[in-house]
Design a protein that fits this description.
About 65% of the residues lie in helices and about 10% in strands. With about 325 residues, the chain is mainly alpha-helical. The chain has a three-stranded antiparallel β-sheet with strand order 1-2-3. Belongs to the binding-protein-dependent transport system permease family. HisMQ subfamily.
Length: about 325
């Protein structure tokens, strides 16, 4: 028996016991299998948690204390920070950081999709090659890879194009072809491919196998199945990892300062090497990193929200523990 009280809760009677069920949510009882669902919008009263609020107040106090100390500390020299925040040299380094991030992320994603497809291939040789690539570039530090590509000229002085055993048609010095900027793009991309291939592979595996089986029954080729069925559906699982990967690439570009590429951090270093104001210039770089990262995080949230339409989890109500439940 069910007693509907308009604008309130639903009273459900089961085995002589009255249970209060919130009318906005869905509730599956432990001893009954059907569903009661109404459209009344009435929230569930939750118990006040003193520990949760105490922890929040403590964290807020620590953050405000840190902000106060930073504002009062003269070593930060906030006036100098404001002076150099829009310095042309800093803005030029920021521009280099932004386009490097875009290029490296795009190339890493393109080749990552290829390596992920190779990793999932039924051909054991192709799958093994992809696995070895991922293993090698994940096992070595990014700085080591970057220095290796920067000094590749010592290993291969010239790049020759021609047939083996014959005089080369074209011979180019390696250092003239792979500059510091080229070595940076190459190192960051090849390192990023190993990681992008893994989260792309995870997204592809998240697509139900039945989708591929249905596509094969319709006569689609493997390439058509991947391009039209599997990959579009995998984007919902790939987007969160891709957003994190993009932000990581943004911050990862700072490592190329070791090979003297004038990105954001190296631009700040060039300035504080002249005026010895290390902390203020590092704060300038930090402010720009935080600002751009915050924008990318907002974009990621908006894209995730769009791709997750229709996939939100349903929330179910719990029976209220009060006087009515015991009656």
């Amino acid at each position: 028996m069910t007693d509907f009280d308009a604008g309130k809760n639903v009273r459900f009677f089961q085995n002589q016991e009255k249970i209060i069920i919130n009318t906005e949510r869905k509730y599956y009882g432990e001893d009954f299998s059907y569903l009661i669902e109404l459209e009344n919008k009435q929230g569930i009263t939750q118990r006040f948690s003193y520990a949760r609020w105490a922890f929040g107040v403590a964290v807020l106090f620590i953050v405000l204390s840190f902000i106060y100390l930073a504002a009062q500390n003269e070593a930060f020299d906030w006036a100098l920070v404001g002076h150099y925040l829009f310095n042309p040299q800093i803005l030029k380094g920021l521009y280099t950081t932004l386009w490097l991030t875009a290029v490296v992320t795009l190339l890493s994603l393109i080749f990552g999709v290829v390596v992920a497809a190779m990793r999932l291939s039924r051909n054991p040789v192709v799958s093994l090659i992809a696995w070895c690539y991922i293993w090698l570039f994940r096992a070595t530090p990014l700085l080591v890879q970057l220095l290796f590509w920067f000094n590749i000229g010592y290993l291969i002085p010239t790049l020759n194009l021609g047939l083996p055993g014959m005089h080369p048609w074209i011979s180019i010095p390696t250092n003239s072809l792979i500059s510091a900027l080229g070595a940076s793009i190459l190192g960051l991309t090849m390192h990023g491919v190993a990681y992008s291939a893994e989260f792309v592979r995870g997204g592809l595996l998240a697509v139900p196998v039945g989708q591929q089986e249905a596509a094969r029954m319709l006569g689609l080729s493997p390439l058509q199945i991947f391009r039209k069925i599997v990959f579009p559906q995998s984007l919902r699982s790939i987007i969160p990892a891709l957003g994190n990967f993009l932000i990581d690439n943004l911050k990862g570009t700072s490592i190329i300062s070791v090979v003297a590429v004038t990105e954001l951090l190296y631009s700040a270093q060039l300035i504080y090497n002249r005026n010895y104001k290390i902390i203020p210039l590092l704060l300038v770089a930090t402010i720009w990193y935080v600002f751009v990262t915050s924008l990318l995080s907002l974009m990621q949230h908006a894209i995730e929200k769009r791709f997750n339409r229709g996939y939100q989890r349903q929330k179910y109500a719990r029976p209220e523990t009060g006087g009515d439940h015991a009656q």
